[in-house]
Amino acid sequence: MALCSCSATVDEKLQIAGSELFNKLERRIENLDKELRNFANAARQLGSSIGILSSSFRLRERLAKLLFLFRENAATLFPQKISRQPREAPIIHQWTEQRRTDKQMFPKAHTDPESFPDQIAGFAEDVVTFLNCLNEFPEFTDEAVNTSMRTFECDLKYWASCLQEYKGQFRYPAVQRYIHDLTSEIGEHIDIITVNLSMFIEIGRQLVSLLILYLLFLPGVPTIRFAQQHAASNLLNLSTVATFFSVVTASTLQFSYQLTDGVLETSVNAFWFSSLVFSIAAAVNSLLGLTWKQAVYRSPGHKVPWWVLIWIKRSPLVFLVMSVACFSVGLMLFTYATKQGFVTSTITTVFTVVTSFGLAVVSAWFVSERRVFVRYHGQIWLDDAINEAINEVIHRVLRFSLVVVMRDIIRWCLFAISGLLRRVPLKFPDVITQIGHRDRTLPTMQEGPPMDDLSHRRDISTSASSAFTEHPTSIKGLASEDSKPSHPAIARQRFRGAVRSIIVMQQQKAGRPMMPQRIPSFDWNSAVGMSPTRPSSVDLDAIRGPRATLIPKLKTLEPVQDLSVHTALVRHLQFSPSGKYLATSSWDRSSVIFRVEDAFSIHAILVHVGGFIGQVAWSDSSTLLLTRLPRGIKVWTEDGFCKRTIERPHSVSSVVWLPANETQFLSVEGSRVLKLDIKGRVLDSYHFGGIQLHNVAVSPDGQRLLGVGPLLAAPNGMHPSRTTRVEKCIVVLNMETRTFENQTPVFNDVRDITMSKRGGNVLISFEHKTHPQLWKMELVRDTKDRENPYAQTARLILRHTYEPTVRVDFVGPSYFGGVDDQLVLCAGKAGDIHIWERDTAILLHYIRPQAFGGDLTCVAWNHSTDDPCMLATGSHDGTVHIWRTPMWDCSSDGGSYLEHAGMLGADQHTSSPILGPPPVPGSSRGHR
Fold first, then answer.
1. Of 19, 218, 674, 684, which one's alpha carbon is 20 to 30 angstroms from that of 295?
2. Do you find a cis peptide bond into 630, omega within 30 degrees of 0?
3. For residues 590 and 608, is the Cβ–Cβ distance under 8 A?
4. Which of 844, 129, 104, 906 is nearest to 548 (CA)?
5. Does the pTM exceed 0.90?
6. Which residues contact 522 (CB under 8 A, 6 or more apart)?
7. How many angstroms separate the CA atoms of 211 and 202, rounded?
8. How far apart are CA 797 and CA 453, in angstroms?
9. Looking at beta carbons, which pairs linking 364-373 to residues 24 or more positions away fall under 8 Å?
């Protein structure tokens, strides 16, 4: 019960931490949305601000979509703290009167987790569009806003390109966890943009005048008053221009009102009188609108008929335009009515046509631009609509022409064929009769029952279309089976088809998605020829037995010997698989082989002339030792004899022996892994694309290669900004097919990867304060390989995160411990050591920080035996400390399992200064 409560407490802490991270992102997005709304309200008073308004609303709508996706992702990971929300309608433009129905909510494609890369890429485009619209005003240019938005755009495109590599995996817990962790960096960018945009609004930058700044500080009545004054000044200007133009029209009428002889003279008076009427109407309606704007006791806008609002707001400008047009036409006719010279009449006509045409086109453009903007909600501009219409017209014309031409060709061909057939005397009715008679001939009983053959074909089709297909059915296979039907095969096929049909029907009835069939609990022992094991309900005593034996042993671990041989930092150390030797490497350019005995003694000293020694690696037989130099590898025997020095042209970051191979190993160099023999010959190479590998691990069967490291660049060639972390990932490469079977992103800086001896369990180590993680590599059926129905592909699943009881600054990689790799151990810089149980992530033993005279740098476990348990640690001052337990006698253990496992109350435990507090089960299990 205590164990369950502790696990629930840890899970609850994870739920709280995850929900807090999402809530922080939600607040950041809401703040940015508020600043965009304030900016749009302030910019609405400016001329030609429609681009800024449109881009800001599109940016706000994109933020709403991304927030919905992040909420769905967080609700999947932390269902106890974050609830799902229904799809809500996106932000509606305030200048449109059209309302979207329920069917016009977020499209399903936009709420699918697979749309994360597209939405992030669209977010980058919306940010750039907003910035471009902002920079159209030279007075709006602000370097802080430009820099922050350009940086955000770069990082968004980088993330979108990297996430494209995980298509089809956005419902996997590992990718969901990475996306959730990514919200912290996205939130930091949003905060920067929010602050810069807020400062930009407050400062004003020339065009946003001091009056707008005053309005931002004192919203409400001053804002409304300014808007009313702005509209009133426009109406007053229209009234002034209309009054002046009516005076001009009335003056010109004095020269033409007596001309009533002909049609031409009458037309002149008609146009000029109309111009005078329209100009007076424009002036009067402007004053009427000004009075309506300033009236205190008037109805609100939604209570006034639409035609009254249009008459008040739009009629002054329309009447003024019509007055100018009528006056221009009348002036052109006046030159002909008064019989002016040919040059005067021609010039007046040309200028009148040009000015009137320009006036008409610009007016039509204004009206069409508003209609297109309202119809498409700011997604398409008038120029785009015109180009689209032109392309549609051209497409229809070409299609119509092609149809006409093809129709003529077909008619000509039919006419030619019909003429040819009239000349050839063929007896088509006899041929058709013979064919029909032959087809109606039924097979005899000796040929096989037709119903069985039909059911056999139906079973084959059912099996081929099933989601659980094991053998692809080809046309050739169907023909061969039909030609030689086998009754037992037919019966088996029927039974399989019926079972699969029942399974499909049950899944469809339950509403569950059909997933590809998985191979349950793949065991590497069966892959290498050992007896396979299957998971079952194991007896609880069978689990308690090994743990009850290990905990008392681990409690007796203590430092028994200090080996002061090196004069500089101990970089790496490793026990030989046989348990007879311990190899160390140091920055003093030497490596030492110790003989493992009751008292460790120096077996051989390996001196290197140049370069620091970064790693040692024993072969499986413990007869050969590799030491890694910055640009080289040395091969040593167990007695300290150097067999070969292999120089490499590139930096070597890690060396790994191939399983069950004493002559070949792998050298990790940049983004390539080279297979070398002990003579230095390159046998093969494996390329990992743009990944800067830190370390690799090989599966026990030697078929798959796992690598960890950051991306050198995104698939589209982009790099992140200086403030953003580079993408890190775990990659599984099939060494036979040379294809990437799996690529899983990780958020933190990854350092090392280790695979257990029996395979399947992968231990990932990160930098410093990030906790190590255990991943499970499973083999599932490869649905993409249609040629081989038995092809398998690897999939990584997060199982545990090993959390310590205190804050630890980890040093060196984490390693497996125990004979069967049943333990996970990691050292802290201060000298503390944590030992967890691998499969349950329960902290079995915690050693408090020790006063070694120097910080710890690395740790290693002797896998040859668990009796006694033995480990070694390296220090910063060059000392190697040996830890060991005394020989354990199980019969002398009088304590119960619950006491050793730390499941009793705190008052029933005893603690020592070396062992520290009793173990506390602290684990973070991977979401399945």
1. 218
2. no
3. yes
4. 844
5. no
6. 760, 778, 779
7. 11
8. 46
9. 373/50, 373/54
705 beta partners: 698, 733
Residue 874 CB: number of other CB atoms within 10 A? 29
d(CA 584, CA 576): 11
For 391-434, the DSSP string reads HHHHHHHHHHHHHHHHHHHHHHHHHHHHHHHHHS---HHHHHHH
Cβ–Cβ < 8 Å for 254, 274: no
Residue 255 lies in a domain: yes
Q: Domains in the chain: how many in total?
A: 3
> Residue 777 carries which DSSP code?
E
Q: Are residues 108 and 243 in the same domain?
A: no
The domain of 547 spans 540-565+808-928
Provide the Cα torsion 229, 234, 239, 241; round to 10°. Answer: 140
Does 301 fall in a domain? yes
Which of 217, 248, 275 corresponds to the end of one domain?
217
Beta strands 870-875 and 879-884 are: antiparallel
Torsion of CA 407, 413, 416, 420, to 10 degrees: -140
- What is d(CA 178, CA 767) in angstroms, rounded to the nearest whole number? 17
**Residue 263 in domain:** yes
Which runs of E-coded beta strand occur in 430-575? Answer: 558-564, 570-575
Same domain, yes or no: 854 and 813: yes
Residues 212 and 245 in one domain: no
> Could you tell me which residues are beta bridge partners of residue 594?
582, 602
Chosen domain end from 217, 247, 262 = 217
Let me know whether 115 and 41 are in one domain.
Answer: yes
CB 628 within 8 A of CB 613: yes
Q: Do residues 160 and 124 make contact, with C-beta atoms less than 8 angstroms apart?
A: yes
Q: What is the pLDDT of residues 676-719, one digit of tens each?
A: 999 999 999 999 988 999 999 999 988 999 999 998 888 878 88
Same domain, 279 and 356: yes
Full DSSP string of 902-921: T-S-GGG---BTTTBSPP--
* Claim to verify: residue 138 and residue 98 sit in the same structural domain: yes
Q: Could you tell me which residues come within 8 angstroms of residue 504 by beta carbon, excluding any fewer than 6 positions away?
A: 466, 467, 514
Look up residue 444 and give its two tokens.
Answer: 């005899």
Q: Rounded distance, CA 691 to CA 406, Å?
A: 55
How many helices and strands in the chain, by DSSP H and E? 19, 29
User: Quick one: which of 737, 758, 51 has its CA closest to 382?
Assistant: 51
Q: Which amino acid is located at 356 in the chain?
A: S
* Residue pLDDT, tens place only, 817-861: 988 899 999 988 888 899 999 998 889 999 888 766 668 889 999
Closest CA to 65 of 88, 32, 35: 88
**In-domain check, residue 161:** yes
Q: How many CA atoms lie within 13 A of 278 on its CB side?
A: 19
CA 200 to chain centre: 31
In tens, the pLDDT along 413-472 reads: 777 776 666 555 444 444 434 434 444 333 333 334 444 443 433 343 333 333 333 333
Same domain (yes/no): 92, 204: yes
CB 730 within 8 A of CB 710: no
Report how far residue 592's alpha carbon sits from residue 607's, in angstroms, rounded to the nearest whole number. 8
Distant-in-sequence, close-in-space partners of 885: CB < 8 Å, separation ≥ 6: 553, 554, 556, 557, 558, 868, 869, 870
What does the block give as tokens for 728?
A: 């890190």
Q: Same domain, yes or no, for 185 and 258?
A: no
Rg of the chain over Cα atoms, rounded to whole angstroms, equals 41
Q: Is residue 54 a contact partner of residue 373, using CB atoms and an 8 Å limit?
A: yes
